[in-house]
Amino acid sequence: MAIDLITREEWRARAPRGRYDEISRTRGVKVHYTGGRVDPALVEDHDLCVALVRSIQKHHMDGNGWIDIGYSLIACSHRKVFEGRGLHRLPAANGPGLNAGHYAVLGLVGNSGLTVPPDGLLHGLRDAIDYLRAGGDAGPEILGHRDGYSTDCPGEALYGWVKRGAPRPGGGAPAVRAPAFPGRLLRYPPTMYGGDVYAWQAQMRDRGWDLIPDGVYGPRSAEVCRLFQLDSTAHGWPLVADSIVGPATWRAAWERPIT
Fold it and tell me: Is the CB of residue 4 less than 8 Å from the CB of residue 81?
């Protein structure tokens, strides 16, 4: 599928306040999220996506004092890509001293409300990356905003996707059969310890989640579990988002395709 690009004219972007600094090529792309609440209704109403992009531009220009929206491209859940600063123009969103190295691509998910990227948004991000590679001389790197800059962006779910190599939905193969369930529910609180905890943590790390295997099931493990359960449900593998590693979540950690 060719990129479904919404031009600046089509989303009624304000004109930049000055000249862009030009870039000939980059090492790749950095992926971002909004950092605030995104209304889940965006998934059903594309007009809300347009309104959100326009509000982001307003914040960047009137709040941050930038000449324009800080992103190169913006992807939404409808597999549409908004033209931001576009090709061969220096973005502003990666952080001081970091903008020349990578284009900046935003996915319209946040840290509350809509937090798990739908498949259409992931396809849109991949369409944007391919577009930047083909027409903007972007290199092969796909990183998160947090790579090299102190921030939570692009959030756990989207960063996990980045760490897995930013695959297109449906492109991953099932993992090997899960080992036998250890026979106890892994939950927090209280903190739990053991080899079963370590095995689950190591598998989640290998899937791309930001989790250090230490055999201690505490608040970080519980949060990764919850995000994995939400991500699984969003990709057709329904799990209860209860932060507990039970039989279904244990099996999904090995057998759910990496998407």
Answer: yes
